[in-house]
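Lecture notes, unit on protein representations.

Consider one protein chain, 328 amino acids long.
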Amino acid sequence: MNAPIAIIGTGIAGLSAAQALHAAGQEVQLFDKSRGSGGRMASKRSDVGSLDLGTQYFTARDRRFVEVVQQWLTRGWVAEWTPGMYHAKDGQLSASPDEQVRWVGTPRMSAITRALLGALPVHFACRITEVFRGGSHWSLQDAEGCSHGPFSHVVIATPAPQASALLAAAPKLAGAAASVIMEPTWAVALGFDTPLETKVEGCFVQDSPLDWLARNRSKPGRDNRLDTWVLHASSAWSKQHLDLPKDTVIEQLHGAFAELIGCAVPPPSFTLAHRWLYARPAQAHQWGALADADLGLYACGDWCLSGRVEGAWLSGQDAARRLLEHLA
């Protein structure tokens, strides 16, 4: 019996690879340092309902991804989001309707990765710190010092800075991953007892600590007790204030939001802050996936392509394709 394939990371890239390998009859085992799947597609359960703190929506342009999203739609995992879209510049709000089709997981963003994971075997709350080769197989070591294996191949589907450390056995791949700059984002959720009197449901922001805000209840399937909003700080502001206490981050971004939104903003009755250290790659790459087929080591993620959900999914497909080609 062949040893299974290890996949580190259960965001879209890791699950895309896992699905493709599983469909081809390969046995996979997944590992994730978090308590649940999703990576930046994860949703945060809170006292006021579920909140998408990471990925806000996604688009589909590549034919292969368009087809997959249609399947997700048929299965009820996603729905189209048609928010009242605005642009804010120099403190001025202007309506910004566009033809872009935006998709969200339903009833929350993490519904997609949860459905993709299905019944595949997974170790949650298991942070892999080392990937090493013994004889003809791979083993993984976790932060508790436990060893997992043997595995025939390893697919690393984590943000680039974490991937470069796990790719030590393949210095060329490790170097490529290490060259990717990932930018941070502070995310803040605010909840109001009385709905704010504004038509804004999604807004791209310039010249502000913020670069995005969204009204949660405008997304299909959301069941929020309060009028909850998710704010994303800009990469530049987040970098500058990386170690700011959460309370201060909430206070400053709430202030920026109140200045911008164009209506009275009472003190929120619910607040939450989350720091995404590796929110997005600073630039796009055209790698598809990184592979050392002779070693049996692969890496995939949005950082291998466009930095978008679509890029993550395509990268996972590419890693699986290369692995299967080498097996053939």
